[in-house]
Design a protein that fits this description.
By secondary structure, the chain is α/β, with parallel strands linked by helices. It has 2 domains: about 1-35; about 50-135, Nucleotidyltransferase, domain 5. Helices cover about 40% and strands about 20% of the residues. The chain has helices at about 1-15, 20-35, 85-95, 110-120, and strands at about 50, 60-65, 70-75, 75-80, 100-105, 130, 135. The strands form 2 sheets. It has a 5-stranded mixed β-sheet with strand order 4-3-2-5-6, covered by helices on one side. A two-stranded parallel sheet has the order 1-7. A hairpin with a 5-residue loop joins β2 (about 60-65) and β3 (about 70-75).
């Protein structure tokens, strides 16, 4: 009888308790989810113009793109000029401290870029940047 008790207690000592490790993993997961900022990119590739004074925009949260054909994209979907304002208003309400970055192709029309900027400003966003590539 003593032999059985000793074997059982040895088996219990050899088991690894995974509960504290799982608790730590879940706490780390929650921490990373809460602290991560999600960036909603425009979803298309554009050929940006070069600029010697280009700087990195830190708190950009909304990206809108204009390709060389004059098409406007927001979150990987094509939108019309008239729907820029309501879409930006909705996204800006979700992240009011962020800014808007316009990724305009260097072959796109300047007039369309100005119209898009006007729609963004009328949506209440004052911090607007135009994406460029840094040239040396």
């Amino acid at each position: 009888m003593k032999q059985r008790l000793n074997t059982k207690s040895v088996e219990q000592e050899n088991e690894i308790n995974l509960t504290p490790m799982l608790d730590v993993i879940f706490i780390m997961l929650i921490f990373f989810i809460v602290t991560t900022s999600f960036v909603k990119e425009s979803g298309i590739e554009v050929s940006r113009p070069n600029a010697m004074t280009a700087t990195k925009q830190e708190r950009a949260s909304i990206f809108i793109a204009i390709n060389n054909k004059g098409q406007i994209f927001l979150q990987r979907r094509r939108i019309e000029l008239e729907s820029v304002r309501p879409n930006i208003e909705k996204l800006h309400a979700e992240s009011p401290e962020g800014s808007v970055v316009i990724q305009a192709d260097k072959a796109s029309e300047t007039g369309l870029l100005i119209q898009v900027m006007d729609q963004i400003r009328s949506a209440g966003v004052k911090n607007i940047s135009v994406a460029t590539s840094h040239s040396n």
